[in-house]
Every structure is written in structure tokens, then in C-alpha cells.
Amino acid sequence: MVRDKDTREWGVRPFIQDRLTALSKSGAKSLAGLCMVLSLAACSRTLTWEEEVPLNTGETLVLKRAMEWRLQGGAGNPFNFGMRPDVDKQVLEFRYRDKDYVYSGGAAVGWIAVSKEGLPVLVATPADWAWAVRNHYYCIVPFYVQFLPDATGRSWTWVRPIEPWLYGLPYNVLANFPRLNEHAKQRYAVADRVERDATYRREQPERTVITPDYKSRSCIADPASK
Fold it and tell me: Which candidate, 46, 132, 150, 122, places its Cα nearest to that of 90?
């Protein structure tokens, strides 16, 4: 009986204590991880600025933009934390012919153009910001996406293919938007856009002029076509 008592005293209890200690440490790590996630979620900053946008009609409008930056993991490495733009929460707002238009979403809008009916439309490059992947936008030539506004000017529907009247239009929305580590201007003139996007225009011509035969190597093939 004494041996059994000794076994319980010196064998079982230390084992239980060790397990409790391990669970306690694990719980502490989980709690620390949860606290870190909550703190990251609260760490964000929104940059706002304006741009002068020359239209295909000869008019110029003022585009108001907002981009939220959040502390988040990288696409290839979720533990590579850094302040990165949350493109899904970007906002583009402008007024055209006494009507307000607001777009909020994750498309890399490069063009604002006006149809012959006087309707503003947006054009984006779907390969950028993984918009095509997230929205199942399959390969098409030319590989652009066009957005049409509803009557409120706040809800946009994408159509494919884009309309031919858009071919050849130069982009007019700033591609190299302001970063957190720079002193952003309150308003960017056309000359500012040309200067900031010099490298962009040289290396990616299909993203600066709507090209009718533009194909993307990274587009997704339509499963129905197989």
C-alpha cells in the first residue's frame, strides 16, 4: 500500500502537473496569438488624395481616391507582416455632369471614359491585384474589364468584352498611387501622374493604352471551353 501511495504521489501527480503546465503554456501562446491578431486588425491607416483626370470628351474631372493600408501578412508568406494596401476597400469618387459616382472594390481601375450617351464607365486590368482570379474572370481578348454604373452611380456591373469605342484610349488614373512612406500631395495634376508613372508606362504599355489584341499570360482559361 505504501508503494502504491508513493507511486501516486511521485509518479501520477508530477505527470498531471507537467500536463497542466504544458497546457498552460499552450494556452498562453494561443492567447498571445489572439491578442496579436486583434492588435493587427486595429492597425490601419487610410490615405486620401485627389487627381485631375482628363476625359476622352475633352473635359477634366476631379477624382477623389482613398486607399486603406493595414498591417497584414504577405501573399507568399503570411508571417511576413507589413503595412499593405487593402485594395478591396479602395474608393474612387467623382462628380460628372451634376451626378455623383462612387466605386468601391478591388479592381485596378486605369481608365475613366465617357460613352457617346454621356455615361461614365471604368476600365481596369483584371490581372492586377488578382481581381480576375477572385472574380473568375476568364481569358478574353483584349484582356480588360469594363464597369457600368447603375442609376444610383454607386453599384457597378462588369461586362465582357469591353466595348470597341474604348480601344486606343490612354489611361488617365494614377497607377503609382501614394505610399505610406512618402509625403502624398493633396492633389495630383496630369503632369504629376505622367512623372510618377514613367516606369509603369515604359514597362507595361498595354496598361497605359487600351490595346485591342492584348493577351495576358496569367489569365485563367474558361473551364467550359475545355
Answer: 46
pLDDT in tens, 137-172: 999 999 999 999 999 999 999 999 999 999 999 999
Q: What is the 3-state secondary structure (H, E, C) of the chain?
A: CHHHHHHHHHHHHHHHHHHHHHHHHHHHHHHHHHHHHHHHHCCEEEEEEEEEEECCCCCEEEEEEEEEEEEECCCCCCCCCEEEECHHHCEEEEEECCEEEEEECCCCEEEEEECCCCCEEEEECCCHHHHHHHCCCECCCCCCEEEEECCCCCCEEEECCCCHHHCCCECCCCCCCCCCCCCCCCEECHHHHHHHCHHHHHHCHHHCECCCCCCCCCCECCHHHC
Q: Evaluate whether 94 touches 63 at the Cβ level (below 8 Å).
A: yes
* Residue carrying the nine cell digits 466595348: 163
pLDDT band at 198 (very low <50, low <70, confident <90, very high): very high
Domain boundaries, the chain: 1-42, 44-221
Q: Which residues of 124-161 are buried (b: 16+ CB within 10 A; e: fewer)?
A: bbbbbbebbeeeebbbbebbbbbbebeeebeebebeee
Residue 89 backbone phi and psi in degrees, to 5? -105, 10
Q: Which of 36, 104, 48, 107 is nearest to 72 (CA)?
A: 36
φ, ψ for residue 217, nearest 5 deg:
-75, -20
- The pTM score is 0.78
